[in-house]
From TrEMBL:
CDD domains: ABC_MJ0796_LolCDE_FtsE. Keywords: ATP-binding, Nucleotide-binding, Transport. GO terms for cellular component: plasma membrane. It holds the Pfam family ABC_tran. Residues 8-232 form the ABC transporter domain. It comes from the Bacteria. Signal peptide: none annotated. This is ABC transporter. It comes from Caulobacter henricii. One of its GO terms (molecular function) is ATP hydrolysis activity. Transmembrane segments: none annotated.
Amino acid sequence: MTADVAPLALSSVTLTLPSSAGPVNILRGVDLDVAAGERVAIIGPSGSGKSSLISVAAGLERPTSGTVSLFGQDLSKLDEDGRARLRRGRAALVFQSFHLLPNMTAEENVAAPLEIARSPNALPTARDWLAKVGLSSRLTHYPHQLSGGEQQRVALARALAARPALLFADEPTGNLDSRNAGSVVDLMFDLLAECGAALVMVTHDPVLAQRADRIVRMADGKVVQSSAEAAA
Ligand SMILES: Nc1ncnc2c1ncn2[C@@H]1O[C@H](COP(=O)(O)OP(=O)(O)OP(=O)(O)O)[C@@H](O)[C@H]1O
């Protein structure tokens, strides 16, 4: 993995989607560069395009125009499989609603992407990561047997077990009470530091945003401010 290639670079990105009321301009010319290991929080009012930005940046959605480079590769030059291959082991995602597979235990949920990436010792590695997030006693529990905070910690272990260079997080604590949110956030920042991973995180929580190295404020589909003091 080359440290000198920017994990993420967006240039003049637009996203326009059709709706019954006509085309909606969701992203209207977004530039964003994220350096290796840099932690960026994206804030802004509801509907300003934060989740859409993450979706386009992670290659889950194609921009209408502009370029998205992930680890130096232009995503528009890759098909869906190519984008998935590029992300695998290097970029990970954590969402507000966890997205754990309901028919798999905690350890199987964490091991699954490692197995897909053919990493050796997937299950022992999964167990190590569940220990890091304080869930050694819940290895064989299914998601419905876990609390919201525990499910989010499994999701975090799953995202970070492959030691990605970039983590995308969309409201990573959105469904948690403030005590659980605080412990998940502490854990996330500790584990990111351990991996040296960059973070692109959407949040409505100003306290969480302040923990980032940089705060990017969006309004109406555009970046309107980008600085360490944006939330002040
Ligand atoms: N598939 C779609 N088709 C049309 N419009 C959409 C679609 N998805 C999102 N939008 C619109 O795009 C805008 C941006 O949505 P997005 O979810 O990115 O905002 P957000 O800043 O993440 O909002 P929130 O903070 O409420 O989650 C919203 O006005 C939304 O209604």
